[in-house]
Amino acid sequence: MELAYLDAAAELLHMVTEGSFPTAEGGNSDALGPRVGDGFVRLDTEWVVRYASPNGLSAFRRMGLTADLVGRELTEVGRSVMVAAGREDDVSAPEPLAISELRDSLAADKPQVGEFSAGSVTVAYRIIPLSRRATSLGCVVLLRDMTDLRHRDLALQSKDVSIREIHHRVKNNLQTVAALLRLQARRMHHPAARAALAESVRRVSSIALVHETLAASRDGAADLDGILDALIPMISEVSATRTGVRIERDGHLGELSAELATPLVMVLTELLHNAVEHGYSDRDKGRVVITAQRSLGMLIVRISDDGSGLPQGFSLEASDSLGLQIVRTLIESELRGSIRLVRRRGKPGMTGTEAVLTVPLPR
């Protein structure tokens, strides 16, 4: 083993002095890539194995090779591995150790990296051609068994798919609940009961939007900007009597985890609905602006309108509005943040309301 390692190292050092190694395309910076200690195989110019380290031989053993490795052509070894894996008739199966790439490497002195599988075993390879004065001396093949790592990757992918499927089903169930509430509201003759059911539909639909985003997410994070863009038309549709009120977004809320996204979207739904419904009770035109920014680990969202403003003597703590009670509860218990409702001055003769929501972001 030591002699084989020293011989290959000497050839590589000659290539370094000649400037032919390392090449611009060569090398593998991946920390999990194969190293000499993982498995070492030396091939001559005819692709015949001249030496295989114990770890290199073990890699082929795990793929099903039972015969000796030294003295055999790599193409023949590849066929033996395919037979052992029961894939000798599979025309779509790639050549083991990418024989075509190996030949191209020897011809162009270009290293190759990749993976090949046989049966349930996956092996990463790194091919380094050896040459001196433009004359090929064969190549070195480094091998590493990646089976366990790939199995873990597949398990994580399967878990990710399952989680996204759960979010998709939750979204469907919430949409079904919203549809049932909507049907029930149509059968109600009392205006107050119909309005209460309509508000429930709006709240359930906002939660469904979060799960719809999570179902499409690959990292479990919810895109708040996309949710808000879908939420604005929904609020405008519910508040059909305020068709002249425009809701606009300025700035980016970014992404948040599901634990924070769901209560935050519900809070924004309630604040936007209140701004449209109560801020413009005496008019049918106006503008509501959502401004968002992130600073010093905090998400600051401002919802400003040019409506009639807060009534005299208004107190958020003393308000008996169900929507504002939901807002306070979610902000204090779920978001660990704070909210302020202040009266603002707009154009001369006009007032408005500004809700300032501050939410601490996780590190």
Secondary-structure blueprint:
Blueprint: H1 2-18, E1 40-43, E2 49-52, H2 54-62, H3 74-84, H4 99-108, E3 112-118, E4 121-132, E5 135-145, H5 147-187, H6 191-216, E6 221-223, H7 224-238, E7 244-250, E8 255-257, H8 258-279, E9 285-295, E10 298-305, H9 322-335, E11 338-345, E12 351-360
Parallel strand pairs: 7-9
Antiparallel strand pairs: 1-2, 1-5, 3-4, 4-5, 6-8, 9-10, 10-12, 11-12
Helix pairs in contact: 5-6, 6-7, 6-8, 7-8, 8-9
Core attributes:
five-stranded antiparallel β-sheet; Heat Shock Protein 90; Beta-Lactamase; alpha+beta; five-stranded mixed β-sheet; 363 residues; 3 domains; 9 helices
What does this protein look like?
Helix content is 45%, strand content 24%. With 363 residues, the protein is an alpha+beta fold. The chain has three domains: 2-145, Beta-Lactamase; 148-219; 238-363, Histidine kinase-like ATPase, C-terminal domain (Heat Shock Protein 90, 2-Layer Sandwich). It has a five-stranded antiparallel β-sheet, with helices on both faces. A five-stranded mixed β-sheet has the order 7-9-10-12-11, with helices on one face. A hairpin with a 5-residue loop joins strand 1 (40-43) and strand 2 (49-52). It is elongated. The mean pLDDT is 81.
> H/E order of the elements?
HEEHHHEEEHHEHEEHEEHEE
Q: What best-fitting shape do the alpha-carbon axes yield?
A: elongated
Structural class by sheet pairing and helices:
alpha+beta
Proper CATH architecture of the largest domain: 2-Layer Sandwich
CATH homologous superfamily descriptor of the largest domain: PAS domain
User: Total number of helical segments?
Assistant: 9
**Strand-residue proportion:** 15-25%
CATH topology of the largest domain: Beta-Lactamase
Lateral strand order in the biggest sheet? 2-1-5-4-3
Top-tier CATH class of the largest domain = Alpha Beta
Helix content: 40-55%
Total beta strand runs: 12
Alpha carbon gap, first and last residue: 49 Å
Question: What's the pLDDT, averaged over the residues?
Answer: 81
How many separate domains make up the residues? Answer: 3
Cα Rg: 33 Å
Largest sheet: 5 strands, antiparallel
- Unreliable spans: none
